[in-house]
Specification:
Blueprint lengths: L3 H10 L4 E4 L32 H10 L4 E5 L6 E6 L10 H12 L6 E3 L5 E6 L18 E4 L4 E4 L11 E2 L13 H7 L13 H6 L4 H12 L6 H17 L5 H18 L3 H13 L2
Helix pairs in contact: 1-2, 6-7, 6-8, 7-8, 7-9, 8-9
Length: 288
């Protein structure tokens, strides 16, 4: 049976830039670079380390032989993906059902697809330089359908979580056959015109703002309505999404700071303590 290292090397030979991820939470195992003063350099770890270099891949998987295989989306690997998720908590949108409805209405060609352990999918499309995408969700924000473009990544089969559940190929005949995404999907993912956001941004201000602030609003709503048991996890998820938006320059750092302040208020609303919130937000910032 092939090892995870061999699978990672195979993907790299096919042109996918890969890096190792934790089996528990999909977080990158490779950290950030340090400057001459020993301080971490923002935006240099994780997916930024993805490579096709076989020697580096061998070194990583020699250190972490069971690590999951992260694949950088965007121009490096010449792919991007949508990720219709199963609901993680009661009341969450069902990305699978919403994608099925969109596909039934508009149509979509078959393409390389992964089945995730949580019951969702990664539908992977050919990257087009004339239609670049980041992780912004445009008009599908709040539907449970995530986007993985430049700056994002997906986990590739046969990566296996700590609970033993694995990522799988949906249809072997579609393996590494990447379709062009349909025009209607690109149209839905096109960023909306951005409106001016005043100083002292509040939770209500996010609700009336256009993309990309609308995307942050979806994150805030998710954090504020999460029930006990998942609150810290969802807060960390939301904070990491904000960090990604700042690193990828989708929003300026000042707006990221406002979003973190709003995350604090949303987490308080969900019932977390001040200490828990501060610890979680600091942990997210440390991964930038």
């Amino acid at each position: 049976m092939k090892s995870m290292m061999e699978f990672a090397l195979d993907y790299a030979q096919r042109g996918w830039h890969v890096f190792p991820c934790k089996q528990g939470n999909k977080a990158p195992l490779v950290g950030r670079d340090k400057d001459a003063n020993g301080k971490y350099i923002p935006g240099t770890g994780g997916v930024k380390k993805a490579t096709v270099d076989p020697e580096q891949i061998k070194a990583w998987w020699s250190t972490w032989p069971t690590a999951m295989i992260g694949v950088a989306c965007g121009p490096a690997s010449a792919i991007w993906a949508i990720d219709p998720d199963a609901p993680k908590s009661p009341g969450d949108p069902d990305g699978r059902a919403n994608w099925a409805a969109l596909k039934l209405k508009h149509g979509c060609p078959p393409t390389h697809t992964h089945v995730t352990p949580g019951g969702g999918q990664h539908l992977i499309f050919r990257w087009r330089a004339d239609r670049p995408l980041t992780n912004s969700e445009g008009n599908i924000t709040g539907t449970g359908i995530n986007v993985r473009g430049a700056g994002g990544y997906v986990i590739a089969p046969p990566s296996r979580r700590l609970d033993g559940k694995a990522y799988e190929i949906s249809e072997p005949l579609d393996f590494f056959n990447f379709a062009d995404a349909p025009d209607w999907l690109y149209a839905m993912l096109r960023p909306k015109p951005r409106e001016q956001v005043s100083n002292g941004l509040t939770l209500s201000a996010y609700r009336s703002s256009a993309h990309p602030i609308a995307r942050i609003q979806g994150i805030l709503n998710r954090v504020a309505t999460t029930t006990e048991g998942d609150r810290n996890k969802v807060l960390f998820w939301g904070a990491m999404r904000v960090v990604e938006m700042v690193v990828e320059k989708e929003v300026p750092s000042t707006e990221g700071d406002r979003a973190f302040a709003a995350l604090f208020d949303a987490a308080l609303h969900a019932g977390l303590s001040d200490r828990e919130i501060v610890r979680t937000l600091q942990s997210a910032r440390a991964r930038a």
